[in-house]
TrEMBL record:
Presence of the UniProt keyword Membrane in the record: yes
Name of the protein: Dolichol-phosphate mannosyltransferase
Every Glycosyltransferase 2-like domain range: 22-188
Domain annotation GtrA/DPMS transmembrane: ranges: 258-374
Subcellular location: Membrane
UniProt cross-references to PANTHER family, sorted A to Z: DOLICHOL-PHOSPHATE MANNOSYLTRANSFERASE SUBUNIT 1
InterPro entries named among the record's database cross-references: DPM1-like (IPR039528), Glyco_trans_2-like (IPR001173), GtrA_DPMS_TM (IPR007267), Nucleotide-diphossugar_trans (IPR029044)
Keywords on record: Glycosyltransferase, Membrane, Transferase, Transmembrane, Transmembrane helix
Transmembrane segments: 255-277, 289-306, 318-343, 349-374
Family: Belongs to the glycosyltransferase 2 family.
Lineage of the species this protein comes from: Bacteria, Pseudomonadati, Pseudomonadota, Alphaproteobacteria, Hyphomicrobiales
Organism: Bradyrhizobium ottawaense
Membrane topology according to the record: Multi-pass membrane protein
């Protein structure tokens, strides 16, 4: 076929019913919500060829089973079941990349977002007025009245931080409800973080002012079934994202958490050393070894719960991981001391040499842990 008469993606999808819009729905324990959402999508998107991609992180309540049931009845429904991985942002990215329509929307499964806005959002992208459309609670006509006081305060604080620190210009960067042009998303995707909750904030902060953006108001509803997965860890994720974007990805949240756990490890080490020496009269070399062992163990546990909680080791894998972690850290100690010695050799400043060694140790332990202990 000659290029001039080749139909563009939009005309082609209208003619063939190929999806014009991919709706991506991250799910974790949303068994009672997915069918309702599917029916609502079906009603509201009647005039637009669409598909829906559910991305489920192996929900214990069997959400993926329900989605599979839907997919068997309707080929527009697809289910990605991820095993051994957790995380809202990562699920959204994977869902968008697995879909193929020229426009992709992300919407929560729990019916708190307003799917009736989708046709309007598609219209704004199709007309070329926008490349990104954000469902916004904080513009005229939108609201988040269903939030309790503390959640409302946290949301406002995070929004302020995002605007001031990351120079994000939209009213509701913390929203999880948006639609974006596929080509624009694919360009940004390699820079997005799969960790955390705030995919939209990541998108707007990464694109800076390069995405023509329009906000449409919506009312954040209340949850009918199941419960929110937002916990206090989400605040940490948020800070990590802000930091990563500020430092142009030089400092990642994972590395920071790893380093923070390492500092806690130092305190654990010294405390153990002190207790062994003072209360149990253990000779220094043994006390020091005990300190190192206790600190490595507590570092491993903390990292497994915090730093790598999206890839947490469970069951038998914990023991294997712990032994590997001991090994990694022991080699890391050599790297630490080696670097400290050579720095001290050239410049006998104790704190500089000590800090360089410690930094080397952390970087080594971090890199090797990611390779061998919590590998994807
Ligand atoms: N696949 C996957 N993996 N999905 C997840 C995960 C996960 O680890 N955690 C949560 N989800 C899904 C939920 O099943 C739901 O469909 C959606 O992501 C939102 O999660 P909720 O637990 O309902 O979060 P929320 O209501 O507190 O937060 C929402 O509001 C925020 C605005 O304040 C989310 O939409 C946020 O993105 C939004 O920023
Ligand atoms: Mn919710």
């Amino acid at each position: 076929m000659n290029d001039a008469i080749k139909p563009g993606p939009e005309t082609l999808s209208q003619a063939t019913g190929l999806p014009q819009l991919s709706v991506v729905v991250p799910t974790f324990n949303e068994r009672d919500n997915v069918t309702v959402l599917y029916r609502r999508l079906e009603a509201t998107l009647a005039g637009i060829p669409w598909e829906v991609v559910f991305v489920d992180d192996n929900s214990p309540d069997g959400t993926w089973e329900v989605v599979r049931g839907l997919a068997r009845q309707d080929p527009r429904v697809r289910c990605i079941r991820r095993i051994g991985r957790r995380g809202l942002s990562g699920a959204c990215i994977e869902g968008i990349l697995a879909s193929s329509a020229p426009y992709a929307a992300v919407i929560d499964a729990d019916l708190q977002h307003d799917e009736t806005q989708l046709p309007k959002m598609v219209g704004l992208l199709q007309s070329g007025e926008a490349e990104l459309v954000v469902g916004s609670r904080y513009i005229e006509g939108g609201s988040a009245d269903s939030f309790n006081k503390s959640r409302a305060g946290a949301s406002q604080l995070a929004t302020e931080v995002a605007k001031r620190v990351l120079k994000v210009e939209i009213a509701d960067p913390m929203s999880g409800f948006f639609m974006i042009r596929r080509d624009k998303f694919e360009q940004l995707a390699p820079q997005l973080s799969t960790q955390g909750f705030k995919i939209l904030l990541d998108i707007v902060a990464t694109a800076q002012d390069k995405l023509r953006t329009i906000e449409v108001p919506f009312t954040f509803g209340s949850r009918q079934h199941g419960e929110s997965k937002l916990d206090s860890m989400v605040a940490l994720d948020f800070l990590g994202l802000v930091l990563a974007k500020l430092t142009h990805d030089v400092v990642s949240l994972r590395f920071l958490l790893f380093a923070m756990v390492g500092s806690i490890g130092l305190i654990v080490h010294l405390t153990t050393l002190f207790i062994a020496l003072e209360f149990f009269n253990v000779p220094f070399p043994e006390a020091q070894a005990a300190g190192a062992l206790v600190a490595m163990t507590s570092n491993f546990i903390l990292n497994n719960f915090l730093t790598y909680r999206d890839q947490r080791l469970k069951g038998f894998a914990i023991l294997r991981g712990l032994l590997l972690f001991y090994l990694v850290c022991s080699v890391g100690l050599f790297a630490n001391v080696g670097v400290a010695f050579s720095v001290y050799d050239q410049e006998p400043i104790w704190w500089l040499a000590g800090a360089a060694g410690a930094l080397m140790g952390v970087v080594w332990n971090y890199a090797m842990s990611g390779l061998f202990v919590w590998r994807k």
